[in-house]
Design brief:
single chain; 219 residues; alpha/beta; Rossmann fold; six-stranded parallel sheet; 7 helices; binds flavin mononucleotide
Length: 219
C-alpha cells in the first residue's frame, strides 16, 4: 500500500490547521489506498536550514548538522506520496514549511513522488497562491506536483462542530485529490522500481566535464 505522508505546514498556536488536518487525515484513512501518517512540523522543530557539504559527509548516507535533520530526511524518504496541508502566508507558503522542504537536501527523498496540496486561508483566496507557489517549489525537489487541489476559503467558518466541512465541495475535491495521489503513487512506484535516471544536474555536470576534457588544447 502507498505510504502517504500528510504534512502540516503551519505551527503557530491557534492555527486553523488543527481544524483542517484531522478531517484530511480521516478521509485519507477511509480512502483505503494509503498507509497514512501525519507529519506535524510542530513535532519536527528543524533548525533554520544550514547544511553544506561539510555537514553532509558521505553523500550516500548524509550525516547533516543535527540528528533531527537526518531523521526528517529519512522520514520523507520513507514515503510514496505527500499531501501538504497549508495556510497562505504573505502570498506564499509558511516559512516553517519552506524550511522543512529545504531541509530535505542531498537525500533526493521527494524525487519522483507525487505531491498534492490542501490549501486554506482566512479570506476568499483559500490559499491558492500558496498552492501555486508550492508547486513551483517542489518541482526543484524533482517531486511531481499534481494539478488537482483542495481550496478552503474562509477557513474559520469552513468546518462544523463535528469537524466536517460545511461545503460539499471540500469532500468532493479531497476525494479527487486522493484518487489522483493513489494513481500517481502507484505509477511512480512502478517507474522507480524499473530504474531511475541519475539526477539531471549530475548528468549535466558530467556532460560538461566530458566536453571540457574533449577540448583540443590550443597549439
Ligand atoms: C503571517 C501571515 C500571513 C498571512 N498572509 C495571508 C495571505 O497572503 N493571504 C491570505 O489569504 N491569508 C493570509 N493570512 C491568513 C491565513 O491564511 C490564515 O490565518 C490561516 O488560518 C493561516 O493558517 P494557520 O492558522 O494554520 O496558521 C496570513 C496569516 C498570517 C499569520
Amino acid at each position: 500500500m502507498s505510504r502517504l505522508k500528510i504534512i502540516m505546514g503551519t505551527t503557530r498556536p491557534t492555527r486553523a490547521a488543527d481544524r483542517v488536518a484531522p478531517w484530511v487525515a480521516s478521509v485519507a484513512d477511509a480512502h483505503g489506498g494509503f498507509d497514512v501518517e501525519v507529519l506535524d512540523l510542530r513535532d519536527w522543530p528543524l533548525p533554520f536550514f544550514s547544511e553544506h557539504f561539510g555537514t553532509i559527509g558521505d553523500m550516500n548516507d548524509p550525516s547533516y548538522s543535527e540528528p533531527l535533520v537526518k531523521a526528517w530526511n529519512s522520514k520523507i524518504k520513507d514515503a510514496d506520496a505527500y499531501l501538504v496541508v497549508t495556510g497562505e502566508y504573505n502570498h506564499s507558503i509558511p516559512g516553517a514549511l519552506k524550511n522543512a522542504i529545504d531541509s530535505v537536501w542531498a537525500s533526493n527523498a521527494f524525487r519522483n513522488k507525487p505531491v498534492a496540496v490542501v490549501g486554506y486561508s482566512a479570506g476568499v483566496g483559500g490559499g491558492i497562491r500558496a498552492i501555486e507557489h508550492l508547486a513551483q517549489i517542489v518541482v526543484e525537489t524533482e517531486a511531481v506536483p499534481l494539478r488537482n487541489t483542495v481550496v478552503i476559503p474562509f477557513v474559520n467558518d469552513a468546518f462544523d462542530d463535528a469537524g466536517q466541512p460545511v461545503s460539499p465541495m471540500a469532500n468532493a475535491a479531497l476525494e479527487v485529490v486522493l484518487d489522483d495521489l493513489a494513481w500517481w503513487s502507484t505509477a511512480l512506484e512502478y517507474a522507480r522500481a524499473a530504474g531511475e535516471l541519475v539526477p539531471g544536474r549530475a548528468r549535466l555536470r558530467d556532460a560538461m566535464l566530458k566536453a571540457e576534457a574533449a577540448k583540443v588544447p590550443a597549439a
